[in-house]
Design a protein that fits this description.
alpha+beta; four-stranded antiparallel β-sheet; rod-shaped; binds zinc ion
């Protein structure tokens, strides 16, 4: 059973503390490390999505293309642009724009 990082917020206002528990034996309330009072488990796990690795990197890269597209400094080389559009030899006789 993998350990998951859970966040607990002190009811007295000391702040949040984080502990690792497996999903089966996570407590709803732990003792606050500062005042010893009850600290309730927060609803959202703070490291959800942080363990994605390659999946998160792919999402970040995809999102980046929307506002930070790859910029080229020059048009593609002439040999790449002069490729014929059609392989039909009759099309070579058509007027050029
Ligand atoms: Zn406290």
């Amino acid at each position: 059973m993998p350990l998951i990082l859970y966040a607990f917020r002190c009811e007295a206002g000391c702040g949040t503390t984080q502990r690792m528990y497996s999903m089966n034996d996570r407590p709803d309330v732990v003792d606050c490390p500062d005042c010893g009072g009850p600290a309730r488990r927060r609803m959202a796990s703070p490291n959800l999505g942080g363990t994605g690795g390659a999946a998160m990197a792919l999402q970040d890269a995809t999102r980046a293309t929307a506002d930070r597209p790859a910029v080229v400094s020059a048009p593609p080389p002439a040999t790449a642009r002069r490729r014929p559009v059609s392989a039909n030899p009759l099309h070579r006789n058509l007027p050029r724009p």
